[in-house]
């Protein structure tokens, strides 16, 4: 387990972080017994558990592919994870995030080696404080590695955004709600290829480019913590 | 999910790597766009968009209801999409699929974040009565690129939406359907979608191109030049260059789409 804490500096952000500073972050690999792979992640006030089952034979016929394995994802928020109780079960937001998470993780996995199989990724948000989709992807990638699924890289996610007319990294809940834009990004850090990209809010082309660069820089830093978490469990 | 034979896939990739396409378009060229408005007289706003052979009908129905507690002075905009089984042999009746939810949410995000509809204008009585605008997307023929076609259709339908006049007399709402006023709109928005096939980014993908794509990127740009929404899809990845090139190309294509709307 690794903890990054940052020296606080004065800035315009409500929690006093510098524009390119991520919230304190903790990742632990292998936290569940029954799942094939798992991870626990905390970033700022977010608490997330990710679990992986598979590759196992696809019992859902319509998902079965004769030439490759497939990945399925379920992103779910606990009813008690937010201020006003969230009704349990999937809604439109979580359906979309589930789909995007599977698509963000898929490019890193060598599932062609497992035709007719499927990999299930379950992400449970125990407490939410802004940026859960990126945090979920970051945790799920560690859980996939913990499950021993062949992969060419460990996907990592981080958001940048615009708040008080400034492009900032890793938006908190308040910055996300009050901010002018939110750009969640996930990459494969070895090549820098982008596997998740959304944008919500108003940006000029220049601001978008800046946000993308900043998010990628954030991903690179979080990537090191992912690797440390795996090393802590499995040794060098 | 449509299955494309390996041989067709290879031929499409081969063509695209040569900057050619099966239907003779260039990589940044859209298919013909036909927009028809006011085709459902019972709907307060409606439009039908044909993008190549993809066809979408959109209807706007307003209702008077209560605002959300956290935005007591704003109306409500809701966008839903229905992938009708008639549109594709693999579409099934039933609850919305992931693809359908994604489409509705990306279109919703583009419209909402462009601030094209001023929701404050939809307030009738603060905290009590506001207009709820229901925008329903009916996909009737699926031949690729639903995202761009759906956004065009929603914008066209909103442009032609007329709300009944409402008066408050003795604490009672009186809706006057005979007299209407057009919905006030500001910054229009368009969505431009490119897919990565081979090592190229290809705009306005056809059905077959969508079935073999590595990754997809949709970019929402307002008339005033702001990026208001973006969504990556597909099981592959995009390089940072792919993204930057697609964004700057989308800026010029967005102008053509706006022309089609006007």
TrEMBL record, chain A:
SUPFAM superfamilies: Ribonuclease PH domain 2-like (SSF55666), Ribosomal protein S5 domain 2-like (SSF54211). GO terms for biological process: gene expression; nuclear-transcribed mRNA catabolic process; rRNA catabolic process. The keyword Glycosyltransferase does not apply. It is found in: Cytoplasm. Pfam families: RNase_PH (PF01138), RNase_PH_C (PF03725). GO terms for cellular component: cytoplasmic exosome (RNase complex). Its EC number is 3.1.13.-. It is an enzyme of class 3 (hydrolase). Gene3D superfamilies: GHMP Kinase, N-terminal domain. Belongs to the RNase PH family. Rrp41 subfamily. Component of the archaeal exosome complex. Forms a hexameric ring-like arrangement composed of 3 Rrp41-Rrp42 heterodimers. The hexameric ring associates with a trimer of Rrp4 and/or Csl4 subunits. HAMAP family: Exosome_Rrp41. Catalytic component of the exosome, which is a complex involved in RNA degradation. Has 3'->5' exoribonuclease activity. Can also synthesize heteropolymeric RNA-tails. Catalytic component of the exosome, which is a complex involved in RNA degradation. Has 3'->5' exoribonuclease activity. Can also synthesize heteromeric RNA-tails. This is Exosome complex component Rrp41. It comes from Methanobrevibacter filiformis.
From TrEMBL, chain B:
Non-catalytic component of the exosome, which is a complex involved in RNA degradation. Contributes to the structuring of the Rrp41 active site. Gene3D superfamilies: GHMP Kinase, N-terminal domain. GO terms for biological process: rRNA catabolic process. Component of the archaeal exosome complex. Forms a hexameric ring-like arrangement composed of 3 Rrp41-Rrp42 heterodimers. The hexameric ring associates with a trimer of Rrp4 and/or Csl4 subunits. Its main location: cytoplasm. PANTHER family: EXOSOME COMPLEX COMPONENT RRP42, EXOSOME COMPLEX EXONUCLEASE RIBOSOMAL RNA PROCESSING PROTEIN. InterPro entries: ExoRNase_PH_dom1, ExoRNase_PH_dom2, ExoRNase_PH_dom2_sf, Exosome_comp_Rrp42_subfam, PNPase/RNase_PH_dom_sf, Ribosomal_Su5_D2-typ_SF, Rrp42_archaea. It is found in: Cytoplasm. GO terms for molecular function: mRNA 3'-UTR AU-rich region binding; nucleotidyltransferase activity. One of its GO terms (cellular component) is cytoplasmic exosome (RNase complex). Keywords: Cytoplasm, Exosome, Nucleotidyltransferase, Transferase. It comes from Methanobrevibacter filiformis. Pfam families: RNase_PH, RNase_PH_C. Belongs to the RNase PH family. Rrp42 subfamily. This is Exosome complex component Rrp42. Residues 29-164, 189-251 form the Exoribonuclease phosphorolytic domain. HAMAP family: Exosome_Rrp42 (MF_00622).
